[in-house]
Amino acid sequence: MATCAASESAVDRQRPLEFVQVSDSYFTLGNRKFYFTGTNCYYVLTYSVDEGTRQEVLDVFDGMEELGLTVLRMWAFNDGDRWNALQPEPGVYNRRVFRGFDWAVAEAGRRGIKLVLTLTNYFPDYGGMLQYVNWTTGSGNVNDFYSNSECKTLYKRFVRAVLNRRNSLTGVRYKEDPTIMAWELANEARYTSRPGGGAMRNWVREMSRHIKNIDPNHLVTTGSEGFFGEGELSSANPSAFFDEVGVVTELQHRVRNIDYISAHIWPTQWLPDGNLRQHRRFAAQWIRAQARLGRDLEKPVVFGEFGYQPDGNPRRNVYSTVYNVIHNLASRGRPVAGTNFWMLASPEYPDFGSYSSMKDGYTVYPDLDRRGRRPSVNDTLPVDPCRSCCVQDGHDCSACNDGQGKDAHGKLKAALFDAKRRFPALQHLSLSTAFFCAKNPLLSKMCESIPSEIVAGAGGLCSRSQRGFTRPGVLRQIRENAVNMNALNVQV
Q1: Nearest C-alpha neighbor of 188 from the set 241, 136, 246
Q2: Distance CA 86, CA 81 (A)
Q3: For residue 437, what pLDDT is reported?
Q4: In terms of CB atoms within 10 Å, which end of the chain has fewer, N or C?
Q5: Widest CA span of the chain, in angstroms?
Q6: Which of 56, 66, 107, 188 is flagged as catalytic?
Q7: Separation in Å, CA 182 to CA 34, 44, 160, 226, 272
Q8: If pLDDT is split at 50, 70 and 90, which confidence band does 373 have?
Q9: Cα(98)–Cα(83) distance, rounded to whole angstroms?
Q10: Active-site entry in 51, 56, 305, 348
């Protein structure tokens, strides 16, 4: 009964919203300009499916409100034999997962949060392009995704299913829901076998046209990192390596159905030997180069990802550089519209990709005690008892006697499955071994062979003793930028 009542509440309290649009190289929302400070959270879809994990999504929404963030970029895909897969088999969609997706969209809409929904991934996390290739050619070459007709048909079919989805809570089709700001074709797509950029542009043209034919209401962008091709802007690329990854942002963002320019900022990944000063200088130059492209193409620029590690003063300084340069450009009328830092998470969520090969280190945790938690469409969530019993008592999560315990068990089981797939030498690995090593990491040599993310997952998913924490100076920097960018939202 509680779930049913919550669903009705979500519909009753859905805010009347308007679509974000592009006008003269800036965004508009209603009769005002729309500049924003936002964030990423890749786990929103998978954690929205089960009531036992939804609190970690609500913490993100609560944190966004506390920080003044208005746009959330999230994955709208999860493919293959994975926990809470939206597309477990080619062309087959999980209704239960779609209902969780509905809940996340309804909750965001109720709070006035705009969503940027990413439709696939160049990297293998959450399935993405490689999963399509494995379903079709079986070559293991992700570049096949762009040229193989069967891959393209499956992707188009998936896109059509998502856009035409009717939300089970609000009754609104996704393609008609103003909660959604934009569709991203893919996360950080690269076409390394065709570095000239023309082949990627052709794929972008075909898929953006496909989306616009189904959904003329929403914006479409690429999800690109933003590397430049040959020309004067190429000097802004972090190194010569990125000249050859097949992106050429000038070509793909010139496509008519691409509404705004996507770029990312990853100083520590792209310049691994650089120091803090060099990273800040690169970020500033990169932002200005992207703004010049926006001017040339007469399209807004959004920095859909940026991050920095470690936490504390280094992160605060880089955030300050990114935010100050962007605000200064935007306040002078340059076509720079917003940012999404990577990433905001619940304090209960460990700082790593839950069943991914990626150990993150960039996560920002909100101060949820700064302001009381607001009522939500899922107020009555029980605490997962498995979190406090697994590592402490040495039990497998499946031994817990309720559904929430099984949810936690399922997440860690997925992480172990992924590790075994990537590392054949770990076929012996069991859940009980992971829990033992999380509790006693120095007591056994067998723990040395287990990937750190698996041990961290066992500890992070099953122990509430350590909550995520971000230094106040970083959070203050985010809040201040949100205020500054919002002040630019004047009437047009």
Answers
A1: 246
A2: 10
A3: 57
A4: N
A5: 65
A6: 188
A7: 14, 16, 15, 17, 32
A8: low
A9: 13
A10: 305
Comparing C-alpha atoms, which of 38, 45, 44 is closest to residue 59?
Answer: 44
> What pLDDT digit, counting tens, does each position of 264-322 carry?
999 999 999 999 999 999 999 999 999 999 999 999 999 999 999 988 999 999 999 99
Q: Is residue 56 flagged as an active site residue?
A: no
Contact 478, 69 (CB under 8 A): yes
User: Mean pLDDT, to the nearest integer, of 397-415?
Assistant: 52
Contact 25/301 with Cβ under 8 angstroms?
A: no
**Cα separation, 308 vs 112, whole angstroms:** 28
Q: What is the mean pLDDT of residues 455-468?
A: 53
The reported pTM is 0.81
At 427 the pLDDT is: 61
Residue % of the chain over a pLDDT of 90: 71
Is 305 known to be catalytic?
A: yes
Q: Are 64 and 344 in contact (CB under 8 A)?
A: yes
Half-sphere exposure of 428 (CA within 13 A, CB side): 6
Distance CA 357, CA 142 (A): 17
d(CA 82, CA 104): 19
